[in-house]
């Protein structure tokens, strides 16, 4: 490892010259005829490490909204890295091939290369910003890469900190309304018992819930027959908070008389 080798010779003197043989430290020995000098080469491996991070803002959105991802890669090791990039992938297809994007020093939204040398120097943090439209719940995985002086790719799982993830929850408001009658046929002027249900089959709490009942010939959704909400005495299924929670089903019953065609 030429980045972390020291050489000392005895007898000898420390070198005041630039490092030789690619070594970071060296010693010069002057050897006369018949003299023996012992040189010790010590390898001190330097830490190759980066810390990759990704965050989403906001983390909870409605379908079709935009989310901004912030991706960072910090060199928290002791060796500068070249050819640095970060791959983004869906957690369902975690093959580190950058299906959702590959971010390097030439990508849009890049910053952090303080000395503009294209090298992720020790202590330096590179950052990328990406805004995208989301339609479904997703978890995005960021995996960092970078080469040391020997051409070794410093990445996950060699360095566990080279990977991070961010999740986005896409809200899906939805209800399923049902209506049933106790009979299919009645005499004119008769009555019918009606059961109305509304189930929250989405993932969002719903407030101000109500169901309008209208005749088919006057389908203007203004509740000509009746309006059913949380204050109707016949309501069942509410846990008492007046909110139609995900998975909850509200049920109302009513009797209508004097029915005509």
What structural keywords apply?
five-stranded mixed sheet, mainly beta, four-stranded antiparallel sheet, 261 residues, single chain, 18 strands, 43% strand, 0% helix
Written overview of the protein:
- The protein has 261 residues and is mainly β.
- The chain is built from no helices and 18 strands.
- The protein has strands spanning 5-10, 13-14, 27-28, 38-43, 50-57, 60-62, 66-75, 82-90, 101-104, 110-111, 125-133, 138-147, 163-171, 175-181, 192-200, 210-213, 226-229, 249-256.
- A 5-stranded mixed beta sheet has the order 6-13-12-8-9, with no helix packed on it.
- Mean pLDDT is 84; it is low at 14-26.
Shape: rod-shaped
Helical percentage = under 10%
| Uncertain parts | 14-26
Strand order of the largest sheet: 6-13-12-8-9
Give a brief outline of the structure.
The chain has strands at 5-10, 13-14, 27-28, 38-43, 50-57, 60-62, 66-75, 82-90, 101-104, 110-111, 125-133, 138-147, 163-171, 175-181, 192-200, 210-213, 226-229, 249-256.
Element layout with pairings:
Layout: E1 5-10, E2 13-14, E3 27-28, E4 38-43, E5 50-57, E6 60-62, E7 66-75, E8 82-90, E9 101-104, E10 110-111, E11 125-133, E12 138-147, E13 163-171, E14 175-181, E15 192-200, E16 210-213, E17 226-229, E18 249-256
Parallel strand pairs: 6-13
Antiparallel strand pairs: 1-4, 2-3, 5-7, 7-11, 8-9, 8-12, 10-11, 12-13, 14-15, 15-18, 16-17
């Amino acid at each position: 490892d030429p980045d972390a080798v020291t050489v000392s010779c005895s007898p000898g003197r420390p070198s005041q010259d630039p490092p030789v043989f690619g070594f970071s430290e060296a010693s010069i020995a002057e050897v006369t005829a018949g003299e023996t000098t012992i040189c010790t080469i010590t390898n001190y491996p330097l830490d190759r490490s980066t810390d990759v991070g990704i965050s989403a803002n906001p983390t909870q959105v409605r379908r079709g909204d935009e989310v901004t991802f912030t991706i960072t890669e910090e060199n928290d090791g002791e060796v500068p890295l070249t050819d640095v990039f970060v791959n983004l992938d869906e957690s369902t297809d975690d093959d580190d091939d950058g299906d959702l994007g590959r971010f390097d020093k030439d990508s849009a939204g890049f910053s952090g290369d303080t000395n503009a040398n294209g090298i992720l120097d020790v202590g330096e943090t590179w950052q990328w910003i990406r805004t995208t439209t989301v339609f479904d719940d997703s978890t995005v995985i960021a995996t960092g890469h970078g080469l040391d002086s020997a051409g070794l790719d410093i990445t996950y799982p060699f360095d566990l900190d080279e990977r991070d993830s961010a999740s986005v929850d896409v809200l899906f408001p939805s209800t399923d309304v049902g209506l049933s009658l106790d009979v299919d046929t009645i005499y004119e002027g008769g009555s019918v018992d009606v059961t109305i249900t509304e189930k929250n089959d989405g993932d969002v709490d719903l407030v101000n819930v109500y169901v309008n009942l209208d005749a088919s010939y006057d389908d203007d959704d203004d509740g000509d027959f009746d309006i059913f909400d949380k204050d109707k005495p016949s309501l069942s299924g509410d846990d008492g908070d007046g909110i139609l929670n995900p998975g909850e089903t509200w049920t109302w019953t009513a009797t209508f008389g004097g029915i005509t065609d």
